[in-house]
Model the fold of this input.
Amino acid sequence: MRSLFLSLALFLSFVTAKAQLSPEWERVHTFDDSFIEINTSLLNHISKDVWRLRFRWTFTEPQQLSVTPSLQYQSRLEVKEFNCSDKLARTYHVTFLNSTGGIVHIEDTPGKWRLADGMLHKLLVTACDIIKSKTPLTEAQISKLELERVGKYASEVAQQLERTKDFQPVINRFFVNNYLSRYLQDEDTNWFPVVDRATARKATHQELQRFYVAFMNAGYVSSLYLIERAPADFPERASTEDLRKLIAPDVWELIANHPYSIAHKETGYDFLGEKIEDVEQLRSYTDLLEKIVTVMRKQINRTGAEQSNQYREVAETWNLYQPKVRICRENCFGLPPGTKLFEVDIPLIHLQIAETEGQLRVVSAKYSFL
Done:
């Protein structure tokens, strides 16, 4: 069923841009001719105070290898060790790679420990933040009652969405204030898939909110629409023709005749997943999504898609309303450092919830299948 969602996502463009970083790699710093990333998922606890993390330094042009000037490399993978308590760091291992990913040279002699300064200090701060966020909290820090409270809150979000099948009332009731501005401040994740970051910043608050609501609504109602109709033997990688058998002709006709499609379609439906690079294009794309939602919502309201056997079977495979906790890192959605961030799944949606000004609020929402 996951692949079904992904096929639909491709069909309606609910895919992240190929240029986005892999979720495990996070940009640390950008230079004029290179950038540094950190692997946020692969870290090793070496001793009481020492952790080992991986960095990737990628250059726009080939670089000469200092030990063998005749050799060139395009990127290097650096394994570094950090002592966060004493603010010490050292390079443990370096692999130099060419433009195709082939190994050019390996340096496997650990360097000396030294007090982190300059760029190394920036890397240490980032690494130590990740270490803190990955270190399990103690029972004293997270009470069972607190987790139950967050789970109940997430359930209320899901019930509101199921009743209205509309994200706008959910946002009005449950979301943190200025969530759009908080999204735009997040350099690690593009919360407006298929929209170029520069375009998102140029759009007005109203235009951006209208797109986000339309995008979230389209993913929700179209997923319900397909869950109800997909047979058990539906292909793992659904083609356009496979989808045509499930989706009503009026939806295809709507897409084909919409001004956005007329202006941008060349062949197939790949144009729906291309980056939106100007505000006028964003407005037209949003209008297309809103019209798709109107047609599909009427159908699922008539059939009660959430009550279908297919939906219940899929829901049983989700680990719903079970919050996991991490400590919010610096500049995390504008929340103070040290804030507890609760990650929890509701049907089709992955939420991040935090307590702000004494109340629980949703600080982010995205589709679980993206």
Observations:
- The mean pLDDT is 84.
- The chain has two domains: 2-18+141-367, 31-134.
